[in-house]
Amino acid sequence: MHDAFAADQYLIRQQVFTFLHRKFHVYDAAGQNLVLFCRMKGFKLKEDLRLFADENESQELVRIQARSVIDFSAAYDVVDARSERRLGVLRRKGWSSIVRDSWEILDADERPLGTIQEDSTIKALVRRFVDAASFLMPQAFHVEIGGAPAATFKQNFNPFVRKLAVDFSADSQRRLDRLFGLAAGILVMAIEGKQE
Predict the structure, then answer these.
(1) Which of 2, 70, 75, 178 is the most buried (most CB within 10 A)?
(2) What's the predicted TM-score (pTM) here?
(3) Strand pairing partners for 142?
(4) Of residues 110, 67, 68, 66, the one with CA closest to residue 87
(5) Hey, which residues does 163 pair with through a beta bridge?
(6) Distance (Å, rounded) from C-alpha 31 to C-alpha 50?
């Protein structure tokens, strides 16, 4: 495993005002060293996110590909770009996510591993129906693997740059691959961010 993915804490930043595409930068906990870069092209019918080691896009590390164009319970394959090996699958829970954003984490053979769930049903409902709520109560997600806490994703929203703090500290046994977990954070930020 590359040293960049040995840490427990990361920061994902997304520029809000970009033309035709969205950019995601993943930094170490100090927010200084870039460990991943993703440019999400606009106007694509089927999501296809590419994660690179740098902004020059010289080394592709991971691909996140939607299986279908429009799917309420969309499944996204997370693939190691170097080996072409599927790392796992992230599947959005369609009906559950209307009230509270919820995802399933599946292994490479599509067996259930865990979940990614928005912090609270009440907060989720307030965020959906009160415009200013996303500023006052930014989204937070709890990640579980095998029923045990593995990570948290906490959003710090401002009008110009969205930030998602990713913390794997609860996962001392490293049940969740850090690169896969960061890919999940980018995907959740990209997909759930469309609701706002």
Answers:
(1) 178
(2) 0.87
(3) 117, 152
(4) 110
(5) 13, 156
(6) 21
Instruction: Say if CB 150 and CB 172 are below 8 A apart.
Output: no
Amino acid at 103: W
How buried is 17 (Cβ within 10 angstroms: 0-12 exposed, 13-18 middle, 19+ buried)?
exposed
- Give the Cα separation of 110 and 90 in Å (integer): 9
How many Cβ atoms from other residues are within 10 Å of residue 95's Cβ? 9
Rounded to an integer, the average pLDDT of 106-132 is 82
Mean per-residue pLDDT, 76-99: 87
Report d(CA 138, CA 196) in Å as an integer: 11
Instruction: Tell whether the model's pLDDT for residue 132 goes beyond 80.
Output: no
Long-range contacts made by residues 132-136, C-beta under 8 angstroms, separation at least 24? 134/196
Supply 72's token pair.
């309420």
CB 188 within 8 A of CB 141: yes
Using DSSP bridges, classify how beta strands 161-167 and 75-80 pair: parallel, antiparallel or unpaired: unpaired
CA gap 169, 23 in Å, rounded: 26
In the chain, DSSP assigns E strands to 9-15, 21-28, 34-41, 48-52, 60-66, 75-80, 85-92, 102-106, 112-118, 140-145, 148-157, 161-167
Residue with token string 């049940």: 175
Q: Which residues make Cβ contacts (< 8 Å) with residue 58, sequence separation at least 6?
A: 52
pLDDT in tens, 91-111: 998 666 666 788 999 999 999
